[in-house]
Design a protein that fits this description.
Helices cover 39% and strands 22% of the residues. It has helices at residues 16-27, 50-59, 66-83, 90-101, 106-125, 132-135, 146-158, 185-195, 229-237, 245-252, 311-322, 342-345, 349-357, 383-396, 420-431, and strands at residues 4-8, 32-37, 163-166, 169-171, 177-179, 200-205, 226-228, 258-262, 271-274, 286-301, 326-331, 335-341, 363-377, 401-407, 410-416. The strands form three sheets. A seven-stranded mixed beta sheet has the order 3-2-1-6-8-9-7, sandwiched between helices. A six-stranded antiparallel beta sheet has the order 11-12-10-13-15-14. Strands 4-5 form a two-stranded antiparallel ribbon. Helix 2 packs antiparallel against helix 5 (106-125). Bound molecules: aspartic acid. Aspartic acid (ASP) binds at residues 10, 38-39, 49, 51, 113, 167-168, 182-186. The site of aspartic acid has 13 residues, from helix 8.
């Protein structure tokens, strides 16, 4: 049987009730041997995450911090008593307060949410705790050390049958705590899965997977059942909010799939992220749709360009010299159109115009206020059928398409910004519903 590494996010561990649900999930499968946990998250929309409280505590270190420290303490005391876990939190809080008044390092303070939550979770499960400070290694400069970590973690995990490991932080060889960016427990989960050679990295959260479309735009969108790492990267680039890229690299490089699951609905299969997604012949025709606004298109025309090799490269060299990233390029016979993030080019427009004149174009057209809408076909329908349906959906919604580019399963429509939500709704209705 394989090893499963499971990571629970803050909302899955926000109070004793949620922690008990997480523990039931862990215990229901003996392969779930390594558990990575976040700090307690929000219990309601108006609540404050423990990590945010810890940053507030740090900010108030020179003044009236007592109330904040007391409310953090109260969150943990309440969890411990509701779970019936006998733990003396006094020494932990005495250490935090002493640190606050002497060394006062923000990373250390912020990391205590994960640490204390894992102390409680480990006691509740009756499992050992591996402190991430001993196994997740950073350089003094703050740079994360991937190879050292892999060895340290691998060795530590090998010695124990089961363990609870706090997310979000590690330490230098001298023991100084360093944190990952916010949301970094996902990264810890991936590192543990990788070092444990897990058969799956289960990421437990408060939704039943990555959704096909943004739920703020489409009512109750379906979750994505399966997606390849490559397709996920494309959707994320175009604005879908999912796991942080740094949480994907460690497992992707070892071919470990990620399964995003819902702690409140453990029976839901969630989303599987694989190296290669297999085709489910019954699923929706698209894997996902996402949009990103704030684009400018520049079209440069010159008769007989197609005959000269030099123009395309010169145009791209010009952008390169200006440090401008081209997100999309479409070539006509005697024209080139590039789509660029507006914030990259707006302030350089005059310089660009001066330089482009040296190529002696017939015309240069600039169009602002564009959005890119990306759609990934799932493979359940022939690509041409998907293309026709997408075109029909946009046409029915009276959405004018400035440019459409198709490569493999990815289609990108460049449209007016004010229609991007309509486009997502039209595409979802035509290809998913
Ligand atoms: N607790 C940290 C945060 O709020 C890390 C995490 O939850 O992933 O960012």
């Amino acid at each position: 049987m394989g090893i499963k590494t499971v990571k629970f996010g803050g909302s899955s561990l926000a109070n004793a009730e949620q922690i008990a649900k997480a523990a039931a999930i862990i215990r229901s499968d003996p392969d779930r041997r390594y558990v990575v946990a976040s700090a307690p998250g929000k219990r309601s929309a108006a609540d404050v995450k423990v990590t945010d409280l810890l940053y507030q505590l740090y900010g108030r270190r020179d003044g009236d911090y007592a109330y904040t420290l007391a409310s953090i303490r109260q969150r943990f005391t309440r969890i411990a008593s509701d779970l019936d876990v006998e733990i003396d939190l006094d020494p932990h809080f005495a250490t935090i307060e002493k640190h606050l008044l002497t060394i006062a390092d923000p990373d250390y303070i912020a990391s205590r949410g994960e640490y204390l939550n894992c102390v409680l979770l480990a006691a509740y499960l009756g499992w050992p705790l591996i402190d991430s400070a001993d196994v997740i290694r950073f350089a003094d400069s703050g740079e994360f050390l991937v190879d050292e970590t892999d060895v340290l973690l691998g060795t530590a995990l090998h010695k124990v049958e089961r363990a609870v490991i706090p997310g979000f932080y590690g330490a230098t060889a001298q023991g100084q705590i360093k944190t990952f960016p916010r949301g970094g427990s996902d990264v810890t989960g991936a590192l543990v899965a990788r070092a444990a050679m897990a058969e799956v990295y289960e990421n437990w959260t408060d939704v039943s997977g990555i959704l096909i479309a943004d739920p703020r735009v489409v009512d109750d969108p379906l979750p994505i059942r399966e997606i390849s790492y490559t397709a996920l990267r494309e959707l994320t680039y175009l604005g879908a909010s999912v796991l942080h890229e740094n949480a994907i690299i460690p497992v992707r490089s070892r071919g470990i799939p990620i399964n995003i699951r819902n702690t409140d609905c453990p029976e839901d299969p969630g989303t599987w992220i694989h190296t290669e997604a297999s085709t489910d012949s019954h699923g929706p025709a698209i894997v996902g749709v996402a949009a990103k606004i704030g684009y400018t298109a520049i079209t440069v025309r010159k008769a007989q360009w197609s005959g000269s090799l030099g123009v395309g490269p010169s145009l791209f060299r010009l952008f390169q010299d200006l440090g401008v990233v081209v997100d999309l390029a479409v070539t006509g016979v005697d024209s080139w159109t590039v789509v660029i993030r507006s914030e990259m080019i707006t302030h350089l427009m005059e310089v660009f115009m001066d330089k482009i004149r040296t190529l002696r174009p017939d015309a240069v057209e600039v169009r602002d206020g564009l959005a890119l809408v990306g759609v990934i076909a799932s493979g359940t329908l022939p690509r041409t059928t998907v293309t026709v349906r997408l075109a029909q959906a946009l046409d029915d919604a009276r959405i004018d398409v400035f440019a459409d580019t198709y490569v493999g399963d990815l289609r990108i429509f460049t449209i007016d910004t004010d229609r991007h939500d309509d486009a997502i709704r039209a595409i979802y209705a035509a290809l998913v519903d």
